[in-house]
Amino acid sequence: MVKIAPSILSADFSRLLENVSEVEKAGVEYLHIDVMDGHFVPNISFGAPVLKSLKGKTNLFIDVHLMIENPDLYIKDFVDAGADLINVHIEACRHIHRTIQLIKSYGVKVAVTLNPGTPLHTLDEILPELDMVLLMSVNPGFGGQSYIESTTKKIEKLKKMISESGLNCEIEVDGGINLSNVKEVVKAGANIIVAGSAIFNTSDIDATVKAFRNAI
Ligand code: DX5
Ligand code: ZN
Questions:
Q1: Could you say which of 12, 34, 37, 72 is catalytic?
Q2: Residue from 77, 80, 84, 174 carrying the catalytic annotation
Q3: Is the dihedral of CA 200, 203, 206, 209 positive or negative?
Q4: What domains are there in the chain, each with its CATH number?
Q5: pTM, full prediction
Q6: How far is the CA of 136 from the centre of ligand 2 (A)?
Q7: Ligand 1: does its nearest atom lie under 6 Å from the Cβ of 71?
Q8: Furthest-apart CA atoms within the chain: distance in Å
Q9: Across the strands, what pairs with 32?
């Protein structure tokens, strides 16, 4: 089953809990939490306290996407704040294997994220350790960018890599996904779809989530 993961980066922060409740009521499964530090990516979003403010107020699966340098230093904070899964960028981790073990030691799910320019073979040694791979379909840092078309082939290739190794690893895709291209992304093999602006920058969130479900 394909899961929808709205990114709160595009939510109205003055009404954050209301926005989260709206997508939850509309039937999404995940909540995507985009954390940016102004170093790894050229933008700053928010940190663990914002996630903590939602703790106990939603039953959605909390999918934390860390776009930060030195993620090892902050993983525990995000687990304490309610993360169910932690995504770290392979480009930000000098010792990716160690970071993966650290995330697992907290009993949450672990995913590795690849930027559009990072090849799939960087996953060769770590794929069996992962619950999920997150493929970026935009260069991270901002919501509302356009989907990079070459991602579709990359998803297909990753899907093949996973099934040929007999693994049970999920594929999430993030960036520029909207009602016109979501079908292509799912068809290529993604089973978790992140959408920020396409869901929160609409006047009727409920109708948009339902339209996504239909398109899938
Ligand atoms: C990009 C973030 C994405 C982004 C998605 O750096 O990781 O999650 O918010 O937003 P849209 O769907 O607007 O591209
Ligand atoms: Zn993200």
A1: 34
A2: 174
A3: negative
A4: 3-215 (3.20.20.70)
A5: 0.98
A6: 8
A7: no
A8: 46
A9: 7, 63
